[in-house]
Design goal:
Number of domains: 1
CATH class: Alpha Beta
Largest sheet: 5 strands, mixed
Oligomer: single chain
Distance between the termini: 27 Å
Order of helices and strands: HHEHEEHEE
Structural class: alpha/beta
Number of helices: 4
Number of strands: 5
Helix content: 40-55%
Radius of gyration: 16 Å
């Protein structure tokens, strides 16, 4: 799947660069424009469902989890999934640090990457998530 996304991204990037002369103003927002265009194209051609999340300093892990879960269907009590979900996180490095120096929304995404799910916040049981991919963009 990674090679498919990489090939599709390169194809989109080449067509984008031929149509537009990239200036410094356009370059700042180009990661979002390219990613949105690519994911919308994937949605039409391959049946992926894109989810766009913009991080800011006020973004919480609870809100991030709520947005992701709203797009998933319940397969069983503790298994969530959809056909194919691609979550695009813009400005990944933006959430402010908490008192221990971590960024909770990023820790939630890391937990998904490591363990393929996260805990239910109300009933405290593990939710496994199937067929979800996370992509992100950030400025350094």
């Amino acid at each position: 799947m990674f090679l498919f996304l990489q090939a599709l991204f390169m194809q989109f990037l080449q067509s984008y660069m031929w149509k537009e002369t990239v200036t410094e103003d356009k370059l700042m927002a180009s990661d979002t424009v390219v990613a949105r265009g690519l994911l919308n194209r994937i949605q039409e051609s391959a049946g992926y469902l894109p989810v766009f999340i913009n991080f800011s300093a006020q973004t919480s892990s609870a809100r991030t989890q709520e947005v992701i879960e709203s797009k998933l269907e319940k397969k069983r009590k503790n298994i969530l999934g959809n056909k194919k979900l691609v979550v695009f996180v813009d400005d990944l490095n933006m959430p402010k640090l908490d008192s221990s120096g971590s960024q909770p929304p990023i820790e939630l995404l890391r937990q998904f990457q490591d363990f393929s799910g996260f805990y239910d916040r109300k009933k405290f049981f593990w939710k496994e998530i199937q067929e979800m991919t996370i992509t992100a963009a950030l400025w350094i």
